[in-house]
Amino acid sequence: MELSEFNGPYFLDQEPEPCGHYHPDVLLFQDSLNGGDKIIRTTFCFKCKSYFYKGIPVDKFSESFLKELTDEGKKVYATLEQLAAFREEKLKSFLPGNDW
Fold first, then answer.
1. Can you list the pairs that 84-93 forms with residues at least 24 positions away whose Cβ atoms lie under 8 Å?
2. Contact of 7 with 17, CB cutoff 8 Å
């Protein structure tokens, strides 16, 4: 079975992202401040090669996270290359013969 054949859902009760794909095909890319009362969460989908943005109220985050975000303006979690490697590793764990 090829990794490209995996389409999710990968876990019981897993909800799709707005594009219809699932984690680990859709991964968190960065969080940034919008200058208001929300943090803009950016995810990237490797299946449809698209970015998705969601506003999350700042009161959903810890004070230490907000301070770090305020100091830097945004928090980039990984490069797209790093995310691609993480995704590939996770999908390989779903191949027959792997214990999960």
1. 84/46, 86/24, 86/27, 87/24, 87/25, 87/27, 87/46, 88/3, 90/24, 91/3, 91/6, 91/24, 92/3
2. no
How far apart, in whole angstroms, are the C-alpha atoms of residue 49 and residue 24?
13
Quote the strand ranges of 1-100, DSSP E: 26-33, 38-45, 50-57, 74-76
Single pTM value for the model: 0.76
- State the pLDDT at residue 2: 59
Q: Token pair of 58, please?
A: 């700042």
pLDDT on residue 1: 55
